[in-house]
Here is the input.
Amino acid sequence: MRCLSIFLTLTISFNSCNKEKSENLSVNDTVHLNEGKDYNSLISEFDEQLLLEFTEVPNNSGALGRNKNGYFHVRFQINMSKLSDLAVKSQRIDALQAFLKSLQYSFLYQESNGGFQLIPPDDLINNPDIPSANTGDRISAVAFFAYSLGLGLTTLENSDWYSNHSETEEIRQQIQSFSSNIELTLSYLKTNKEILNQADQYAPNRLLFDAIAFYSLGMYLEDNEAKEIGIEFMQRVLELTDETSGYFIEGGGWDSSYNGVALKLGLEAFSLLPISEFKEIFGLKLAEAMDWQISRILSNGEILTDGNTRVFPGGESFLGNEKTVDAEKTIKALFYFSFLTENSSYKNIALTVLNYYY
Here is the structure.
């Protein structure tokens, strides 16, 4: 099994920033990103309780997130893949049933062109401070859903328990009955890929959602064109990294929240790719971004927002609510990195962040 090997000095500089000063933590080690370890292998290494910590249970209709208060848009079904992760990790039929229910709910709102209905709640429609979604926003939102859809379906298909065990047969058949809806979703994204690229061109995290949507659905549907489009989106992401510090550029600079999001997504994409020269280059960029991300974590687990371009006190809002640090994504990225490098230092940092935010 070939491994990607680079040398990095991981120095976590815990800047006091008007907080109580902490000791610096340094980890000097050779980083090996295992190119042969796939996504299912990563999920298998998680503790079940940790997966449960981040897994949302759908309501009786199958709705997740903002859709629980009444259907808004399919993008809010984005946590579906956490249900498939749990199902495969622990062979849990209840999680698999919840994934199916969320799938059924989602496709109730699919339109004939493959897109999905948008039904904003009245309080947003009547709020003059919240702009209406444009075409790019709507297509990008479908890509968010397609990311979770494709990743979830691919994870299930790569599970021997799901694919071959008699207890999963009925649910397998029900999921397979949505093949035409899944194909239509991918067709919609293909048709609108140029608009999607233009809408997301300056946001590495969004480009990675797009990349995984195309690549994972391409894997599931055995569509090589979709997989190639996915790689094209990944290549665009590599153009949006800072050459000196390695972080993913958001809003013209760094952002410790969105860098964590991009890292988590990038490592998921990395785990889907076959061994190749591109995968090696991609892994190098991810390692550099991880090095920078760790430099933004205090010894108590807090992720610094000083200097962020998007997420900071008084920063960006989404649907009228100010954005806060998405610590879950950094935690997941650190665990992925620990599994891919077999270096427990990353896991220890992940647990420190987990304890601070949860």
